[in-house]
C-alpha cells in the first residue's frame, strides 16, 4: 500500500427511531470478512474489484432487509454468512419469592453446555420451588442464582410464575374461552395435569374445576369442594398450567398499616401491634409472598398477625411481578 496500510470504514445507515443493537455484531463480522478478502484477493484496494464489492454490499443490504439473513459466495473458498438475530427485551427482575418454570419440558441445550452455576440449579427448577429455596438447596449465592435465572429468562428457557399456595386465590381470565374451544390446548392440559399414574382425567372435570376459580375461593376451598385427586387431577399442576397459559391469574394480598401517621417529619406508631421486624413491610408495597419469604413466617402466621390488628388493611390486586 502507498502508506503501508489500508484504512476503510463499513457502516449501516438506519432510521433514527430504529433499534440497531442487533446489527452491531453483523457489522463486526462483515468487516472481518472484508479484511480476509482484502488479504486474499485485494477486494477493496484493487480498482478492478470495485464492481464486485458494490455487488456484494448491495446484496447484503437487500437480503438483510428482506430475509434478515444473507449467504453470498465471494470466491470458491469463501462464503459470507450473515443473520439478524432477534433482540429480546430486558428480562424482568427476579426476587426471592419468585418461582421459575421451564417454557418447555426441558431446555434443548444439553446441560454440559451450560455454565457450572446453571448446571447446579437446572435440576431444582420444577415450577414449585421459589428462588430462595433453589439457592439454599443448590448451595449457590442468591445473587448468582438470580443472575442465572435472568439469563434463562432472556433466552426464553424459563418464565416466572407466582408461588403456589393452597391459601392463594386465583381468578379466571378471558383466555378460558380458548381452552374451551382449542382441542390441542385441551389435550395438552389433560396430559400435564394428570395425578401420578392413577388414570387420565377428563377435560370435563378439568374445566369444571377451572370454572370454580374466582375471588371468593382459595385453592384449598376448591380442593375441598371439587376433590381433584379423586378425579386423577393434580391441583398443583392444574394451577401451574393455568398460570403458564394465562387461563388464571393470581390475586396478591398487600397489607397496609393504617396506624402509621406521618405529620411532616414525625412518625407516630402505636405501642402495641406487630413486631417492628415485620411491620416495616406493611406499606402496601410488599405482597404476602414477599413478606413470608423475607421474614420466614408462614402464610397462616402472617394472616393471624394481621387479623389481630384492627388498623391493618389488606389490598387485594392482580400484579404480574408481585
Write the layout of secondary structure elements.
Layout: H1 21-41, H2 50-66, E1 69-75, E2 78-83, E3 99-102, H3 116-121, H4 131-138, H5 142-154, E4 158-161, E5 169-172, H6 176-181, H7 183-192, H8 203-210, H9 219-226, H10 235-244, E6 248-257, E7 261-263, E8 266-268, H11 276-279, H12 288-295, H13 299-307, E9 312-318
Describe this protein's structure.
- By secondary structure, the protein is α+β, with helices and mostly antiparallel strands.
- It folds into four domains: 21-83, no CATH class; 99-161, Orthogonal Bundle (Arc Repressor Mutant, subunit A); 169-246, no CATH class; 251-318.
- It has 13 helices and nine strands.
- It has helices at residues 21-41, 50-66, 116-121, 131-138, 142-154, 176-181, 183-192, 203-210, 219-226, 235-244, 276-279, 288-295, 299-307, and strands spanning 69-75, 78-83, 99-102, 158-161, 169-172, 248-257, 261-263, 266-268, 312-318.
- A three-stranded antiparallel beta sheet has the order 5-6-9.
- It is elongated, with a radius of gyration of 28 Å.
- The protein starts with 20 loop residues before the first helix and ends with a strand.
- This is Nitrogen permease regulator 2 protein-like.
- Belongs to the NPR2 family.
- GO terms for molecular function: GTPase activator activity.
- It comes from Tropilaelaps mercedesae.
